Structure formats: C-alpha cells, structure tokens
Task: inverse folding
C-alpha cells in the first residue's frame, strides 16, 4: 500500500542538511563570482557617489502639437545615451520620466556644464557627400559600403541596386574624378583628392583671384585638419565635425563594420535631417538583401536627395558615397550608382535587425519635431553623497539592532535561528547587488538603501510568524519536534501570502514609477524574494536540526519554548479503548 502523504512530508523533513548545504553552495558560488569579477562592492547611484542629475523637458516644435509620444521620447533617449557616452562616461543613466521628461544621471568626474550642453541641445542630422576617407591610424583597405537604392514607383521599399557590407574603407589611393575639396568650397577648380593622410589638393585659376585664394587657403586648412585627424583618440571622436556649419565642408569620424575608426573629408550638407519624413527598419523578402533601412523624404527633401545622388553617381569611390552624419559623427556612408528620384530610398548592406533599427532611429531623430529645455540640474558632491550613505548605513544598523534586541527579549534562544537567518539574507543581498551593478547597471541609491532597511522588518516578520506557530503547537501540549512539523505548513502559507503582497506592491511601484523610486521598489522586491529563499532553505531546516537538541526539545526556560512559560496544556495522552462494548451497571432485580 502506498505511504500516506503525511509520511512523505515527514521523510523529506528528516534530512534538513540538504537544504542547508544547498544554500551554503549558493552563497559560496555567488561570493566567488563577486570576487572573480572584481566587483566587490555595490555600484552607487548619483545621490551616494556624487555626480550630476539633469531633468530635460520635451517641447513640441511649431506645427507639431502631438510630437511628444513614446516612440519619439525613446528615440531621444537613444541619442542622448550616445552623447553621454561620447563624454567618456561609462555609468551614466538616461531614462524617461512620465510622458515628457528625460532624466540624465552622470556620475562624478564629468564636467556638468559640458554634460548639460551635450544632452540639452537638439541633434543635428545631415547628408554630406564624401570627398575622401581612410581607416584612421593604419593602412586603408578597400571594402564595400552599404548601397542606397530607390523605387521608381514611389513605394517606401524598392528593390536594392546592390547589397554589400555596412562599412566603407575605400582605397587609400583612390583618385577623385568629380567633387574635390575645393569644389566643396564652391571654387572654380578641379583638384584631385586622395584618401591618404598626406593627400594634397591643387586648385586651378578662378575668375576671381581673391575668391580662388580664399578657397585655396580653406582647402589647405581642411587638408591639414584631415592629415592631423586621428579618430582612434577619444578627443578626436568627441570634437571632429561637431561645430561645423551645414554650409561648410568638414572632417569627421565614424566606425566601419570591422570596428575600425575611419576619418572623412565631407562636403557641405546636401540634405538636412528634417527633410527625412520617415525611416524604418524592414526585412526585405523580395530579394536577399535581408534587413534594410527605408527612407521617405519630404517633397523638398526628395528634390535635394535626387540632385545629390545624381551628382554622386557620376563619381568613383569614395566620392560616390554620402555620409549620414549625426552630431558630427558618421553613422553610415552608403554609395549610389544612379540618381534616386522617387522620393524614397533604401539602404541595404549586411545589417542585422539591431543595426538596421539603430540606423532607422537615428534617421528618424533627424526629423524629430522635439526640442528639450533643461528643467532642473542638480549637482551632488562626493562628500555629500558619502554623508548620505553614512546616514543610511547608521539608520540600517539601528534598525537591525532594534530587531535583534526584540528577538533576544521575546524569543531568547530562538534568536539563534533568527539572527543567522538575517545574516544569510544580508549576505545574499550584498553579493547579488554587487553582481547586478555590472550586469544590469543596478545602482544603489538612497531610496534603495531605505528599501533594504524596510526589508529587515519583512524578513524578521517571517521568523516571528514561524516561531509563533510553533509556540501555539506547544501550548496545545505537543513536544517540540512534532510542533515544528505541524507549525510549518500553516506558517508557510502565511509567509508566502505576506511576501507575495510585498512583492506585488514592489512590482507595481517599479512599473509605474521611474528614477530613484524604482531603486526602492527593486530592492524591496529583491529582498522579498530572498526572504522566501532564506526561510525555506535555511530557517526551517535549522529549526528542524535544533529541535533535536536537548536545550530546545527539553523546553529550557531560556530557549523561548518553555511550555510552562507559554501556558501549555498538559501533554496529550492516548487512552486505550476497550476491545468490546462496555457493560452497564447490573440491575439488582436482575441479579
């Protein structure tokens, strides 16, 4: 006959060492990962480590009353992330707040005024013709660029003219047969431009001697800038082409598909980002092009784009390419073979979905009818952050001390179970927070510290529920070992319901809020989950082990489980039932 369900439960609880060994292995493994990764402390947020917090408020451009929407705001966040990263900041946070605000948190060590200027201005997107280009800091090798094509029918997705890799590294000795540096300066000359760093431009006489001289000087200056440009350096990446006017030629930096930095000489902007009506990433099922980026231009932009592509199609590489320049950086440089006159264009290459979506977002941002103003900018010094962290740690220590004191006074020996459980929970929380910093960029801010302090009470509450259930069983006259096993199912239900409510509240708070409040919600949710883990894998098994010890099983008065002190009933005793029916009293008359 199958064993009863109750018997299986008792058998499972007879080996608490397995649960204790499991949580010990988890602690050792996580601690090893923490030291192995070198992240031995939690990553601190702006309010604790110091830094700058900027709140940007979105504003509609004239004639665009409904521009503030989720898509546009998310695109703006992507662009601002790129800008902040351009400052050399590795742990900045850029996120939306509500429907019209963006919060930018930049850790200490960054110039706050420079950061404000970088994230507070509207992005500039231009289509510029490529005059010369080469791999920066090394010999250039010829690699194909993405191709741009159009659909004569005017559809947003037409058949591509060609497909190739998503980078451009033309031959270092490619000679221009079309536009050259001085052409970009609008001078009457036909020089040759090379893509080597020592390239020189020669000008031919122009009708105006003064104009020719100015053009030659400007061309020489531009060539000198190009020769000196080293895009492998961070300063060059952050400054090249940033201040150039749309009407002037410039130098710029960009990355190719091999991850190499390229430098460019670019002509004046032929098309503005505001001329792009729509851009999106699509998977082309008609050809083998795979993921492509389609562009739809405004009527004004379509004419501009047709003119520039018509001119570029007559040239040889690299001067048959146009560079898509965002905030001074080249994000793509497709080549063209014919004039694209349909008002639509498609950029194809070896794009994956993420790369195509990223380029489409950047193109869309050029036409984004949003501007931002700095609503607030708060700078927190490292000293102030250190004071806040110190105050938070003191508050946590006081809260923990009060909980321990309460356990010692009211539960006496049972604190031997509760205090180690609190220590295990604290250790797991610390290690996991340290690991979450580099993995999901979790930052411990002051509200998160408050969440950890609140979690002390939640964790202690689970122990109290379990202890009181055990005491109730002892008051009913049961000995300790069966009292522990009978109390656990009832306590378990209560603990799970209580923790579920806490976790649900934390989850809702995390979803509906942003910024620092999310730190509180995340920490509260994390510690609530860890509370369940600790109670099931440590507190209950440890209580099962201690219930076998005489100090607790015998009901010592300092154990916290003294039957007399708890007002227990006399021990339950079984009475032997008679085998047969009990005879009643004999009637004297019958006797």
Result:
């Amino acid at each position: 006959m199958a064993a009863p369900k109750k018997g299986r439960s008792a058998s499972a609880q007879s080996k608490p060492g397995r649960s204790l060994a499991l949580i010990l292995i988890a602690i050792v493994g996580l601690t090893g990962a923490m030291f192995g990764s070198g992240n031995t402390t939690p990553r601190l947020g702006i309010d604790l480590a110091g830094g700058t917090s900027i709140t940007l408020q979105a504003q509609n451009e004239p004639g665009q009353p409904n521009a503030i929407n989720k898509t546009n705001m998310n695109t703006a966040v992507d662009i601002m992330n790129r800008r902040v990263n351009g400052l050399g900041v590795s742990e900045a946070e850029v996120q939306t707040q509500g429907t019209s605000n963006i919060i930018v948190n930049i850790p200490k060590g960054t110039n706050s005024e420079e950061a404000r200027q970088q994230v507070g201005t509207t992005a500039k997107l231009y289509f510029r013709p490529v005059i010369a280009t080469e791999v920066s800091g090394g010999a250039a090798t010829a690699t194909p660029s993405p191709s741009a094509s159009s659909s004569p029918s005017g559809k947003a997705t037409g058949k591509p003219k060609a497909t190739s890799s998503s980078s451009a590294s033309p031959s270092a000795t490619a000679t221009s047969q079309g536009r050259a540096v001085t052409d970009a300066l609008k001078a009457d000359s036909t020089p040759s431009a090379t893509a080597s760093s020592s390239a020189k431009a020669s000008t031919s006489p122009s009708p105006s001697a003064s104009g020719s001289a100015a053009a030659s000087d400007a061309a020489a200056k531009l060539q000198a800038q190009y020769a000196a440009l080293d895009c492998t350096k961070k300063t060059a990446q952050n400054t090249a082409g940033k201040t150039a006017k749309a009407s002037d030629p410039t130098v710029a930096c960009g990355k190719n598909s091999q991850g190499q930095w390229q430098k460019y000489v670019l002509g004046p902007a032929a098309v503005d980002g505001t001329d792009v009506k729509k851009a999106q990433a699509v998977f082309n099922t008609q050809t083998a092009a795979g993921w492509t980026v389609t562009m739809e231009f405004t009527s004004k932009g379509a004419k501009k784009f047709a003119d520039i592509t018509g001119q570029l199609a007559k040239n040889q590489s690299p001067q048959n390419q146009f560079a898509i320049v965002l905030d001074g950086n080249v994000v793509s440089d497709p080549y063209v073979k014919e004039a694209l006159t349909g008002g639509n264009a498609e950029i194809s290459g070896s794009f994956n979905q993420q790369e195509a979506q990223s380029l489409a977002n950047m193109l869309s941002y050029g036409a984004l009818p949003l501007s931002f103003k700095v609503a607030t900018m708060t700078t927190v010094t490292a000293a102030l952050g250190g004071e806040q962290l110190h105050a938070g740690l003191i508050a946590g220590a006081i809260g923990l001390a009060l909980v321990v004191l309460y356990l010692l006074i009211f539960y006496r020996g049972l604190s031997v179970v509760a205090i180690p459980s609190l220590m295990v929970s604290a250790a797991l929380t610390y290690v996991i927070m340290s690991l979450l910093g580099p993995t999901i960029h979790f930052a411990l801010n002051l509200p998160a510290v408050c969440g950890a302090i609140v979690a002390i009470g939640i964790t202690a509450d689970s122990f109290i529920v379990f202890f009181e259930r055990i005491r109730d069983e002892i008051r009913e006259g049961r000995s300790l070992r069966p009292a522990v096993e009978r109390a656990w199912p009832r306590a378990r239900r209560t603990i799970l319901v209580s923790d579920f409510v806490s976790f649900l509240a934390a989850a809702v708070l995390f979803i509906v809020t942003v910024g620092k409040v999310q730190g509180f919600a995340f920490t509260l949710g994390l510690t609530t989950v860890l509370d369940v883990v600790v109670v099931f894998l440590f507190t209950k098994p440890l209580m099962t082990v201690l219930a076998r010890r005489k100090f607790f099983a015998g009901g010592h008065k300092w154990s916290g489980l003294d039957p007399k002190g708890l007002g227990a009933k006399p021990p339950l005793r079984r009475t032997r039932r008679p085998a047969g029916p009990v005879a009643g009293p004999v009637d004297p008359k019958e006797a």
